[in-house]
Protein backbone atom coordinates (compact mmCIF):
# COMPACT_ATOMS: atom_id res chain seq x y z
CA UNK A 1 0.00 0.00 0.00
CA UNK A 2 1.39 3.37 -1.03
CA UNK A 3 2.26 5.92 1.64
CA UNK A 4 1.26 9.56 1.12
CA UNK A 5 3.92 11.38 3.06
CA UNK A 6 4.25 13.96 0.30
CA UNK A 7 1.04 15.54 1.64
CA UNK A 8 2.71 16.11 5.00
CA UNK A 9 5.39 18.05 3.15
CA UNK A 10 2.68 19.95 1.27
CA UNK A 11 1.02 20.78 4.58
CA UNK A 12 4.26 22.30 5.85
CA UNK A 13 4.63 24.36 2.66
CA UNK A 14 1.05 25.56 3.00
CA UNK A 15 1.61 26.58 6.63
CA UNK A 16 4.81 28.46 5.77
CA UNK A 17 3.04 30.39 3.01
CA UNK A 18 0.17 31.17 5.39
CA UNK A 19 2.56 32.53 8.02
CA UNK A 20 4.43 34.43 5.31
CA UNK A 21 1.30 36.30 4.24
CA UNK A 22 0.14 37.00 7.78
CA UNK A 23 3.49 38.70 8.36
CA UNK A 24 3.14 40.62 5.09
CA UNK A 25 -0.44 41.77 5.53
CA UNK A 26 -0.17 42.97 9.12
CA UNK A 27 1.28 46.34 8.05
CA UNK A 28 -1.76 46.99 5.85
CA UNK A 29 -4.20 46.01 8.59
CA UNK A 30 -2.47 48.24 11.13
CA UNK A 31 -2.02 51.14 8.68
CA UNK A 32 -5.07 53.08 9.95
CA UNK A 33 -3.63 52.85 13.49
CA UNK A 34 0.00 53.46 12.60
CA UNK A 35 -0.60 56.38 10.27
CA UNK A 36 -2.36 58.16 13.13
CA UNK A 37 0.46 57.49 15.58
CA UNK A 38 3.34 58.21 13.18
CA UNK A 39 1.55 60.85 11.03
CA UNK A 40 2.17 58.95 7.80
CA UNK A 41 1.22 60.38 4.41
CA UNK A 42 0.40 57.98 1.58
CA UNK A 43 3.93 58.57 0.33
CA UNK A 44 5.41 57.60 3.71
CA UNK A 45 3.45 54.36 3.68
CA UNK A 46 4.42 53.76 0.06
CA UNK A 47 8.09 54.22 1.01
CA UNK A 48 7.73 51.51 3.67
CA UNK A 49 6.15 49.17 1.11
CA UNK A 50 8.84 50.19 -1.38
CA UNK A 51 11.66 49.07 0.92
CA UNK A 52 9.91 45.78 1.58
CA UNK A 53 9.70 45.28 -2.19
CA UNK A 54 13.25 46.47 -2.84
CA UNK A 55 14.77 44.04 -0.35
CA UNK A 56 12.36 41.36 -1.54
CA UNK A 57 13.83 41.83 -5.02
CA UNK A 58 17.39 41.59 -3.69
CA UNK A 59 16.41 38.51 -1.73
CA UNK A 60 15.06 36.82 -4.83
CA UNK A 61 18.31 37.39 -6.70
CA UNK A 62 20.21 35.57 -3.96
CA UNK A 63 17.71 33.08 -2.56
CA UNK A 64 16.93 31.06 -5.67
CA UNK A 65 20.59 30.24 -6.29
CA UNK A 66 21.21 29.68 -2.57
CA UNK A 67 18.37 27.18 -2.31
CA UNK A 68 19.55 25.29 -5.39
CA UNK A 69 22.96 24.94 -3.71
CA UNK A 70 22.03 24.07 -0.10
CA UNK A 71 18.65 22.45 -0.73
CA UNK A 72 15.12 23.24 0.38
CA UNK A 73 15.56 21.95 3.94
CA UNK A 74 18.39 24.25 5.00
CA UNK A 75 17.41 27.12 2.70
CA UNK A 76 13.76 27.35 3.68
CA UNK A 77 14.38 26.72 7.37
CA UNK A 78 16.93 29.53 7.55
CA UNK A 79 14.69 31.90 5.59
CA UNK A 80 11.67 31.40 7.85
CA UNK A 81 13.82 31.84 10.97
CA UNK A 82 15.23 35.15 9.69
CA UNK A 83 11.90 36.54 8.49
CA UNK A 84 10.32 35.66 11.86
CA UNK A 85 13.02 37.68 13.62
CA UNK A 86 12.31 40.61 11.31
CA UNK A 87 8.55 40.29 11.82
CA UNK A 88 8.92 40.43 15.61
CA UNK A 89 11.35 43.37 15.31
CA UNK A 90 8.56 45.43 13.67
CA UNK A 91 6.96 45.71 17.09
CA UNK A 92 10.01 47.44 18.58
CA UNK A 93 10.59 50.26 16.08
CA UNK A 94 9.84 53.85 17.00
CA UNK A 95 10.11 55.74 13.71
CA UNK A 96 9.00 55.59 10.09
CA UNK A 97 12.62 54.91 9.10
CA UNK A 98 12.63 52.03 11.57
CA UNK A 99 9.65 50.51 9.80
CA UNK A 100 11.46 50.82 6.46
CA UNK A 101 14.40 48.91 7.92
CA UNK A 102 12.25 46.24 9.58
CA UNK A 103 10.04 45.67 6.55
CA UNK A 104 13.12 45.54 4.35
CA UNK A 105 14.54 42.73 6.47
CA UNK A 106 11.24 40.90 6.30
CA UNK A 107 11.08 41.22 2.53
CA UNK A 108 14.68 40.03 2.06
CA UNK A 109 14.07 36.77 3.94
CA UNK A 110 10.54 36.14 2.65
CA UNK A 111 11.84 36.16 -0.93
CA UNK A 112 12.98 32.56 -0.41
CA UNK A 113 9.43 31.29 0.08
CA UNK A 114 8.36 30.57 -3.50
CA UNK A 115 11.74 29.33 -4.80
CA UNK A 116 11.99 26.92 -1.84
CA UNK A 117 8.38 25.77 -2.13
CA UNK A 118 8.67 25.31 -5.87
CA UNK A 119 11.84 23.23 -5.45
CA UNK A 120 10.25 21.09 -2.72
CA UNK A 121 7.17 20.43 -4.86
CA UNK A 122 9.35 19.49 -7.84
CA UNK A 123 11.16 16.99 -5.60
CA UNK A 124 8.09 15.55 -3.90
CA UNK A 125 5.32 15.50 -6.53
CA UNK A 126 4.93 13.87 -9.94
CA UNK A 127 4.17 16.15 -12.90
CA UNK A 128 0.45 15.36 -12.94
CA UNK A 129 0.03 16.47 -9.30
CA UNK A 130 2.28 19.54 -9.27
CA UNK A 131 -0.38 22.04 -10.32
CA UNK A 132 -2.74 20.91 -7.56
CA UNK A 133 0.09 20.83 -5.03
CA UNK A 134 1.20 24.31 -6.05
CA UNK A 135 -2.40 25.56 -5.86
CA UNK A 136 -2.73 24.26 -2.30
CA UNK A 137 0.62 25.79 -1.33
CA UNK A 138 -0.27 29.12 -2.95
CA UNK A 139 -3.66 29.12 -1.18
CA UNK A 140 -1.66 30.06 1.90
CA UNK A 141 -1.37 33.48 0.23
CA UNK A 142 -5.09 33.86 0.87
CA UNK A 143 -5.57 31.82 4.03
CA UNK A 144 -2.97 34.00 5.79
CA UNK A 145 -4.81 37.24 4.98
CA UNK A 146 -8.09 35.44 5.76
CA UNK A 147 -6.98 34.64 9.31
CA UNK A 148 -5.05 37.85 9.89
CA UNK A 149 -7.77 40.56 10.15
CA UNK A 150 -9.65 39.14 13.13
CA UNK A 151 -6.49 38.02 14.96
CA UNK A 152 -4.32 41.06 14.29
CA UNK A 153 -7.00 43.67 14.92
CA UNK A 154 -8.19 41.87 18.08
CA UNK A 155 -4.65 41.80 19.51
CA UNK A 156 -4.01 45.42 18.49
CA UNK A 157 -7.32 46.69 19.90
CA UNK A 158 -7.10 44.71 23.16
CA UNK A 159 -3.37 44.94 23.78
CA UNK A 160 -1.24 46.97 21.36
CA UNK A 161 -0.01 47.07 17.79
CA UNK A 162 3.40 46.03 19.11
CA UNK A 163 1.91 42.84 20.55
CA UNK A 164 0.28 42.07 17.20
CA UNK A 165 3.68 42.06 15.49
CA UNK A 166 5.27 39.98 18.27
CA UNK A 167 2.60 37.27 18.39
CA UNK A 168 2.22 36.75 14.64
CA UNK A 169 5.97 36.96 14.04
CA UNK A 170 6.63 34.18 16.56
CA UNK A 171 4.60 31.63 14.57
CA UNK A 172 7.50 31.06 12.18
CA UNK A 173 9.80 29.80 14.95
CA UNK A 174 7.41 26.92 15.67
CA UNK A 175 7.28 26.05 11.96
CA UNK A 176 11.08 25.91 11.69
CA UNK A 177 11.23 23.21 14.37
CA UNK A 178 8.64 21.08 12.54
CA UNK A 179 10.42 21.59 9.20
CA UNK A 180 13.75 20.48 10.62
CA UNK A 181 12.40 17.18 11.91
CA UNK A 182 9.95 16.34 9.11
CA UNK A 183 11.57 17.41 5.83
CA UNK A 184 14.06 15.50 3.68
CA UNK A 185 14.22 14.48 0.03
CA UNK A 186 11.84 11.59 -0.77
CA UNK A 187 14.77 9.27 -1.64
CA UNK A 188 16.20 9.87 1.85
CA UNK A 189 12.98 9.74 3.86
CA UNK A 190 12.23 6.71 6.04
CA UNK A 191 8.55 7.71 5.95
CA UNK A 192 8.25 7.04 2.18
CA UNK A 193 7.82 3.49 0.94
CA UNK A 194 8.88 2.11 -2.41
CA UNK A 195 5.40 2.50 -3.95
CA UNK A 196 5.17 6.21 -3.14
CA UNK A 197 8.73 6.85 -4.33
CA UNK A 198 7.94 5.15 -7.63
CA UNK A 199 4.78 7.27 -7.95
CA UNK A 200 6.67 10.50 -7.22
CA UNK A 201 9.38 9.81 -9.78
CA UNK A 202 7.01 8.56 -12.49
CA UNK A 203 7.41 10.23 -15.91
CA UNK A 204 10.50 12.11 -14.81
CA UNK A 205 13.44 12.06 -17.16
CA UNK A 206 15.61 8.98 -16.96
CA UNK A 207 18.64 11.12 -17.71
CA UNK A 208 19.60 12.19 -14.18
CA UNK A 209 22.61 14.06 -15.56
CA UNK A 210 20.28 16.50 -17.29
CA UNK A 211 18.20 16.90 -14.11
CA UNK A 212 21.30 17.62 -12.01
CA UNK A 213 23.17 19.87 -14.43
CA UNK A 214 24.34 23.18 -12.95
CA UNK A 215 23.53 26.20 -15.10
CA UNK A 216 24.78 29.75 -14.56
CA UNK A 217 22.38 32.69 -14.25
CA UNK A 218 23.70 34.32 -17.47
CA UNK A 219 23.00 31.08 -19.33
CA UNK A 220 19.47 30.91 -17.89
CA UNK A 221 18.92 34.46 -19.15
CA UNK A 222 19.58 33.37 -22.72
CA UNK A 223 16.36 31.33 -22.69
CA UNK A 224 13.05 32.85 -23.81
CA UNK A 225 11.20 30.77 -21.21
CA UNK A 226 13.17 32.49 -18.42
CA UNK A 227 12.17 35.91 -19.74
CA UNK A 228 8.56 34.82 -20.16
CA UNK A 229 8.44 33.84 -16.51
CA UNK A 230 10.24 37.03 -15.45
CA UNK A 231 7.91 39.35 -17.36
CA UNK A 232 4.76 37.52 -16.26
CA UNK A 233 5.75 38.09 -12.64
CA UNK A 234 6.86 41.67 -13.28
CA UNK A 235 3.48 42.58 -14.74
CA UNK A 236 1.23 40.87 -12.18
CA UNK A 237 2.79 40.56 -8.72
CA UNK A 238 2.14 44.23 -7.98
CA UNK A 239 -1.60 43.58 -8.27
CA UNK A 240 -1.70 41.26 -5.28
CA UNK A 241 0.57 43.62 -3.35
CA UNK A 242 -1.93 46.39 -3.99
CA UNK A 243 -4.80 44.25 -2.67
CA UNK A 244 -2.71 43.20 0.32
CA UNK A 245 -1.33 46.58 1.34
CA UNK A 246 -4.03 49.05 0.23
CA UNK A 247 -7.34 47.18 0.54
CA UNK A 248 -7.87 48.31 4.16
CA UNK A 249 -7.29 51.93 3.12
CA UNK A 250 -9.62 51.54 0.13
CA UNK A 251 -12.39 50.34 2.43
CA UNK A 252 -11.89 53.15 4.94
CA UNK A 253 -11.94 55.64 2.05
CA UNK A 254 -15.39 54.24 1.25
CA UNK A 255 -16.70 55.13 4.68
CA UNK A 256 -15.91 52.02 6.74
CA UNK A 257 -14.43 52.40 10.21
CA UNK A 258 -11.17 50.81 11.36
CA UNK A 259 -13.11 48.05 13.14
CA UNK A 260 -15.57 47.41 10.29
CA UNK A 261 -12.93 46.53 7.70
CA UNK A 262 -12.19 43.11 9.25
CA UNK A 263 -15.34 41.47 7.84
CA UNK A 264 -15.01 42.51 4.16
CA UNK A 265 -11.29 41.68 4.14
CA UNK A 266 -12.10 38.25 5.60
CA UNK A 267 -14.75 37.74 2.90
CA UNK A 268 -12.27 38.71 0.17
CA UNK A 269 -9.69 36.18 1.27
CA UNK A 270 -12.22 33.45 2.07
CA UNK A 271 -13.49 33.54 -1.53
CA UNK A 272 -9.94 33.82 -2.80
CA UNK A 273 -8.83 30.76 -0.80
CA UNK A 274 -11.64 28.59 -2.19
CA UNK A 275 -10.92 29.69 -5.75
CA UNK A 276 -7.19 29.11 -5.33
CA UNK A 277 -7.54 25.46 -4.29
CA UNK A 278 -10.19 24.72 -6.92
CA UNK A 279 -8.07 26.44 -9.57
CA UNK A 280 -5.06 24.31 -8.72
CA UNK A 281 -7.27 21.27 -9.23
CA UNK A 282 -8.51 22.59 -12.60
CA UNK A 283 -5.18 22.39 -14.42
CA UNK A 284 -4.54 18.87 -13.10
CA UNK A 285 -8.08 17.92 -14.13
CA UNK A 286 -7.43 18.98 -17.73
CA UNK A 287 -4.28 16.83 -17.78
CA UNK A 288 -6.20 13.79 -16.49
CA UNK A 289 -8.77 14.35 -19.26
CA UNK A 290 -6.05 13.98 -21.86
CA UNK A 291 -5.09 17.59 -22.51
CA UNK A 292 -1.43 18.43 -23.01
CA UNK A 293 0.43 20.17 -20.21
CA UNK A 294 0.61 23.30 -22.37
CA UNK A 295 -3.12 23.31 -23.10
CA UNK A 296 -4.03 22.60 -19.46
CA UNK A 297 -1.87 25.37 -18.04
CA UNK A 298 -2.76 28.02 -20.64
CA UNK A 299 -6.52 27.28 -20.57
CA UNK A 300 -6.54 27.73 -16.81
CA UNK A 301 -4.59 30.97 -17.10
CA UNK A 302 -7.02 32.48 -19.63
CA UNK A 303 -10.00 31.47 -17.45
CA UNK A 304 -8.30 33.43 -14.67
CA UNK A 305 -7.92 36.45 -16.95
CA UNK A 306 -11.70 36.42 -17.54
CA UNK A 307 -12.29 36.47 -13.75
CA UNK A 308 -9.82 39.30 -13.21
CA UNK A 309 -11.07 41.71 -15.90
CA UNK A 310 -14.25 42.89 -14.06
CA UNK A 311 -12.07 44.97 -11.69
CA UNK A 312 -11.70 47.53 -14.51
CA UNK A 313 -15.40 48.29 -14.01
CA UNK A 314 -15.25 48.73 -10.24
CA UNK A 315 -15.68 52.48 -10.63
CA UNK A 316 -19.27 51.89 -11.73
CA UNK A 317 -20.08 50.07 -8.51
CA UNK A 318 -21.91 52.29 -6.03
CA UNK A 319 -22.00 49.67 -3.28
CA UNK A 320 -18.80 48.90 -1.38
CA UNK A 321 -19.87 45.26 -0.96
CA UNK A 322 -20.17 44.80 -4.72
CA UNK A 323 -16.62 46.09 -4.99
CA UNK A 324 -15.55 43.65 -2.28
CA UNK A 325 -16.92 40.68 -4.23
CA UNK A 326 -15.35 41.87 -7.49
CA UNK A 327 -11.95 42.14 -5.79
CA UNK A 328 -12.47 38.76 -4.10
CA UNK A 329 -12.94 36.94 -7.40
CA UNK A 330 -10.09 38.89 -8.99
CA UNK A 331 -7.82 38.04 -6.06
CA UNK A 332 -8.76 34.37 -6.29
CA UNK A 333 -8.09 34.36 -10.02
CA UNK A 334 -4.72 36.00 -9.38
CA UNK A 335 -3.57 33.28 -6.99
CA UNK A 336 -4.78 30.50 -9.29
CA UNK A 337 -2.94 32.15 -12.19
CA UNK A 338 0.16 32.55 -10.02
CA UNK A 339 0.03 28.90 -8.97
CA UNK A 340 -0.14 27.73 -12.58
CA UNK A 341 2.69 30.10 -13.52
CA UNK A 342 4.87 28.67 -10.74
CA UNK A 343 4.16 25.14 -11.97
CA UNK A 344 5.41 26.00 -15.46
CA UNK A 345 8.94 26.41 -14.06
CA UNK A 346 9.20 22.71 -13.15
CA UNK A 347 7.34 21.88 -16.39
CA UNK A 348 10.10 23.48 -18.45
CA UNK A 349 13.34 23.47 -16.43
CA UNK A 350 15.52 20.76 -14.80
CA UNK A 351 15.09 20.38 -11.03
CA UNK A 352 18.61 21.65 -10.40
CA UNK A 353 17.68 25.15 -11.62
CA UNK A 354 14.03 25.38 -10.49
CA UNK A 355 15.03 27.54 -7.51
CA UNK A 356 17.18 29.81 -9.66
CA UNK A 357 14.49 30.38 -12.30
CA UNK A 358 11.89 30.91 -9.57
CA UNK A 359 14.22 33.48 -8.05
CA UNK A 360 14.63 35.31 -11.37
CA UNK A 361 10.85 35.47 -11.78
CA UNK A 362 10.38 36.53 -8.18
CA UNK A 363 12.92 39.30 -8.70
CA UNK A 364 10.84 40.52 -11.63
CA UNK A 365 7.69 40.47 -9.52
CA UNK A 366 9.40 42.30 -6.69
CA UNK A 367 10.75 45.02 -8.99
CA UNK A 368 7.29 45.44 -10.49
CA UNK A 369 5.79 45.67 -7.02
CA UNK A 370 8.47 48.11 -5.89
CA UNK A 371 7.82 50.48 -8.79
CA UNK A 372 4.07 50.11 -8.38
CA UNK A 373 4.24 50.92 -4.67
CA UNK A 374 5.98 54.21 -5.37
CA UNK A 375 3.53 54.97 -8.16
CA UNK A 376 0.47 54.16 -6.05
CA UNK A 377 1.67 56.38 -3.21
CA UNK A 378 2.34 59.35 -5.49
CA UNK A 379 -0.90 58.82 -7.42
CA UNK A 380 -3.12 58.56 -4.35
CA UNK A 381 -1.52 61.57 -2.67
CA UNK A 382 -2.14 63.57 -5.87
CA UNK A 383 -5.76 62.50 -6.13
CA UNK A 384 -6.27 63.07 -2.40
CA UNK A 385 -4.97 66.63 -2.76
CA UNK A 386 -7.50 67.10 -5.57
CA UNK A 387 -10.21 65.75 -3.25
CA UNK A 388 -10.81 62.82 -5.62
CA UNK A 389 -9.24 59.82 -3.88
CA UNK A 390 -11.72 57.41 -5.47
CA UNK A 391 -10.59 58.54 -8.91
CA UNK A 392 -7.08 57.40 -8.02
CA UNK A 393 -8.30 53.99 -6.86
CA UNK A 394 -10.41 53.60 -10.02
CA UNK A 395 -7.38 54.17 -12.25
CA UNK A 396 -5.34 51.64 -10.27
CA UNK A 397 -8.07 49.00 -10.57
CA UNK A 398 -8.09 49.44 -14.36
CA UNK A 399 -4.34 48.76 -14.42
CA UNK A 400 -4.85 45.71 -12.18
CA UNK A 401 -7.34 44.19 -14.61
CA UNK A 402 -5.33 44.77 -17.77
CA UNK A 403 -2.08 43.51 -16.25
CA UNK A 404 -3.16 39.86 -16.40
CA UNK A 405 -4.32 39.93 -19.99
CA UNK A 406 -1.03 41.51 -21.04
CA UNK A 407 1.07 39.12 -18.95
CA UNK A 408 -0.69 36.00 -20.23
CA UNK A 409 -0.20 37.00 -23.84
CA UNK A 410 3.47 37.84 -23.25
CA UNK A 411 4.06 34.56 -21.43
CA UNK A 412 2.42 32.58 -24.24
CA UNK A 413 4.53 34.30 -26.89
CA UNK A 414 7.76 33.47 -25.07
CA UNK A 415 6.74 29.93 -23.99
CA UNK A 416 4.28 28.90 -26.73
CA UNK A 417 4.51 25.14 -26.08
CA UNK A 418 5.99 24.91 -22.55
CA UNK A 419 8.72 22.76 -24.08
CA UNK A 420 11.55 21.38 -21.99
CA UNK A 421 14.43 23.84 -21.90
CA UNK A 422 17.62 22.13 -23.08
CA UNK A 423 21.11 22.84 -21.75
CA UNK A 424 24.34 21.43 -23.13
CA UNK A 425 26.36 19.22 -20.80
CA UNK A 426 30.14 19.54 -20.85
TrEMBL record:
A Pfam family that the UniProt record links to this protein: MFS_1
Subcellular compartments: Membrane
Highest taxon in the source lineage: Bacteria
Membrane topology of the entry: Multi-pass membrane protein
Transmembrane segments: 48-67, 74-93, 132-155, 161-182, 227-246, 266-287, 299-316, 322-340, 352-373, 393-414
Domain Major facilitator superfamily (MFS) profile as annotated: residue spans: 9-419
Keywords: Membrane, Transmembrane, Transmembrane helix
Protein's name in the database: MFS transporter
Amino acid sequence: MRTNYRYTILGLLFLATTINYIDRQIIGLLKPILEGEFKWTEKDYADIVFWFQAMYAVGFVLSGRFIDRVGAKIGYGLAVFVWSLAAVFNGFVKTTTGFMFARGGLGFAEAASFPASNKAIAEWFPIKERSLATGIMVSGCTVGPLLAPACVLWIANNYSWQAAFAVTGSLGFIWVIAWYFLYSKPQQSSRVNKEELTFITAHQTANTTVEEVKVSIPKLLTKKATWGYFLANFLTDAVFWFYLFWMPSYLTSNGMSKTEIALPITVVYAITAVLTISGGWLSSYFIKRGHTINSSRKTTMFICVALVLPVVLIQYSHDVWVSVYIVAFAGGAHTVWKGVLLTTVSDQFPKAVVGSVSGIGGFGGAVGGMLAAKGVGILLDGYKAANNLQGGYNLIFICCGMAFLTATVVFHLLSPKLSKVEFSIK
